[in-house]
# Entry
Amino acid sequence: MNAPVLFNLEHLTERENADGTKRYYFRRRGQPLTRIHGEPLSEPFMKAYRACMEWTAPAAEAVEGTFAWICDQYMDSPAFKSKAKATQEARRRVIKTMVEEPLDPDQPAEKFGAERAKALTPEYIEILRDRKADNPNAGNERLKILGQVFKLAKARKWVPANIVIGTERLGVPKGGHDTATDEDLEKYFAKHTSGAAWLAGMILKHTGVRVSDLRILGLPNIKKGKLVFETVKTGVLCELPIVPELERALPRDNMTFLLSDLGKPYESDKALSQRVSKWFSQAGVEGITAHSVRKWRATKMAENGATEYQLMASFGWKDPKEARPYVQAANRQRMAQEASDKMAGV
# Structure
């Protein structure tokens, strides 16, 4: 007996054994049929399921010595494989895009990937950077990845030099994502009083999780009154208390808390991120993202006395420098108020 979808999990089928027990398989066109062992919705089961969802078909082997080839060698190197899985996936997407881009928009058949690595010059690196000029962070991310690719290529004598060295980064406006305000959240919840938009807002407000975690959190992560999960980006274990308001909001009939309009989990972090931004726009709040709510929560916690290491535990950060700006800003605000109070009556 086969079933097309189980527990709202795409591509999952079940087969019944002669003794009445069941076994489960991941079945998707173009992908090997894979049996998933374990109790449905358990952590081992979901880990195997997510691995199947993230599977990509092996790319055709690149010609040795080309830009695509040195990129493949980088992605097969210890320097790449030592990165967190989410970082690997993000870098792989960026590399794939660069490899497929044309050298000249007027000659779309001539791809960067097919060009001999030795023939590339710093000017080509600037071209790849500047094609993301409207998104400086993305342009600089390209530079960072290219720097690692050519560092490896030079060390293994595939190219004479790391041509990325000396290429200037794009200027980025200070501050990154805007930080949401209390008023922004009030408008959001005034507009969205139910459904996925309201639920996403509740989870973000009470946890500050990244979109990559928001997309996959669900019933298996509820343990003894806490949300327990390893962050996708950093692999840090987070154990976040579930406050009463969030407890009442979390659904108990879906494997993942958030489902799209089609009744399925969101297919990508980007899709969910864009959806959250759209929900804010619908509430009359422009320029606010899921990350903006994360920054709002971190700011609130710091203003209420949370230390760097407490913020690290709450937000899945590995380095204190990620929490430090919030604590420093809160301390400056507090000290300014204390200084002002000392002048009262003078």
